[in-house]
């Protein structure tokens, strides 16, 4: 038996256990769920075309059920003029491809068109993943000319999973990319595994994927205890959710609904899912704004992370500009690491005179650190062919090391001492 057959067998066993544990599943038979949408949101179901562009017209901000056959499909339309934190949904339309590529640190994102990109989030029967975990609610957000639409696919019982996957695949087929929060590690692998178990192709394979969690960690992990979505909402977006369903309670709320028909908390699950998608979109806007205008509404820590990000994606001119700004204006940036980062940018830009000037400044600002002397010695030896000046700088570096010893700063003595002694001996032979 190969791995796919084993996964299918595990899925069949999981379904049998679920039915055995919930023999009176009210998701199909109970009158309270005959019109679940009406029970949750106070509006009757009106079956509509479920294609991405085929939903019926509705007033901005409306929530409606598009379909109840096979699985429940709910659509929430929010006008692009709606404000969340300090941005409007319309700001999504104005994000440049370059800012998305840089913020996502992935050149493959250059093919993403946000007008045809899906923001995706799932609610599942378990948070650990695995073959027995099922996404019972899949939320997909996307832009139209006038609204940001969140379409939610919900299975009222396990037998509706096939219909949910079919409808979701129909929408994903026309997408140019994905945006998620931790979807690369959780949501997408989970959904792909469900398609494989159902003998379908993994529909997300090959789609460019911007995972906001990875970008957020690059930017804020050094300044925050956690990069969980709720923490980012509070500390970065200034959004505080009230009466939100905690994510860890979502599976139990769903199983209570299956077992007894209780819908207490289920409406909150739908809203929780929608809020996650909106917050993911808001963080994408925030990240891209920072990339476009790194000196506007950013902290010194954020500017440093942006400068490092620019260097890693080979935007060395922008990286150099930010590191120069940090060295000029931020006392906290007066560290050997900042000088090294800026020197790397100058080297990539072939600005060798600026490298020389930079290390001379470092000698003045960094008391008794040997690295600026070493780098200047390299410059005089290899670029200016001035062995005498290189020897002088090497000797000054050795004196700086001795001073650091006297000041009880031993952290980096060993590696510099070996380098300097070898350099001094080699330079003496070149005299």
Short description:
The protein has 431 residues and is an alpha+beta fold. Helix content is 52%, strand content 11%.
Give an overview in words.
The strands form 2 sheets. This protein has a 7-stranded mixed beta sheet, with helices on both faces. The chain is elongated and about 90 Å long. It has 17 helices and 9 strands. It is of the alpha+beta class and 431 residues long. The longest helix has 27 residues, at 266-292. The chain folds into 2 domains: 3-292, Nucleotidyltransferase, domain 5, CATH 3.30.420.10; 300-430, Alpha Horseshoe (Serine Threonine Protein Phosphatase 5, Tetratricopeptide repeat), CATH 1.25.40.10.
Helical residue percent band: 40-55%
Q: Any low-confidence stretches, pLDDT <50, length ≥5?
A: 13-34, 45-60
From the 3D coordinates, which CATH architecture of the largest domain would you assign? 2-Layer Sandwich
**What is the molecular shape?**
elongated
CATH class category of the largest domain: Alpha Beta
Report the biggest beta sheet as strand number plus sense, adding barrel if it closes: 7 strands, mixed
Q: How many DSSP H or I helices?
A: 17
**CATH homologous superfamily assignment of the largest domain:** Ribonuclease H-like superfamily/Ribonuclease H
Number of strands: 9
